[in-house]
Amino acid sequence: MAKKITVLCYPSCSTCKKALKWLDANGIAYSQRHIADDAPTADELTAWIAASGLPFKRFFNTSGKLYRSLDVKSKLEAGMNGEEAIELLATDGLLVKRPIVVGDGFVLVGFREDEWAEKLL
């Protein structure tokens, strides 16, 4: 059964390249969305966080320059709530961890080959 998925990624991100290569090698059809040019909206992020079952903090790209320059780690440690985090994430796609796979009833964040294989193969 073919699953319709969308992959949000950043073309120059090595992890995204690796993830797309894995999808191609496994014959998995997908549509691609540029996470910086077409950033996720607050409504999308709210739905994806709920569907993923992950805490909102896992949606931050903690290795990104923007994350560090905005000192997001300190804001999270100071008690930033989910609504505030989603609003911040929606301001710039580069704050969002990538790649993100959005499918029917599931969301995968980051590239973990075993997790992707379980959901997509």
Q: Explain this structure to me?
A:
- It is a single chain.
- This protein has 121 residues and is an alpha+beta fold.
- It has a single domain, classed as Glutaredoxin.
- 41% of the residues lie in helices and 13% in strands.
- Strand 1, helix 1 and strand 2 form a beta-alpha-beta unit.
- The chain starts with 5 loop residues before the first strand and ends with a helix.
- The model has no long low-confidence stretch (mean pLDDT 95).
Considering the chains and any ligands shown, give keywords for the structure:
4-stranded mixed β-sheet; Glutaredoxin; 121 residues; 4 strands; alpha+beta; 6 helices
CATH architecture: 3-Layer(aba) Sandwich
CATH superfamily: Glutaredoxin
Rg is 14 Å
Please report the number of helical segments: 6
The assigned structural class equals alpha+beta
Number of strands: 4
Q: What is the strand content?
A: 5-15%
Spatial strand sequence of the major β-sheet:
2-1-3-4
The first-level CATH class is given as: Alpha Beta
What is the terminal separation in angstroms?
Answer: 9 Å
The overall pLDDT, averaged over residues, is 95
- Classify the helix fraction into a percent range: 40-55%
**What name does the CATH topology carry?**
Glutaredoxin
**Overall tally of structural domains:** 1
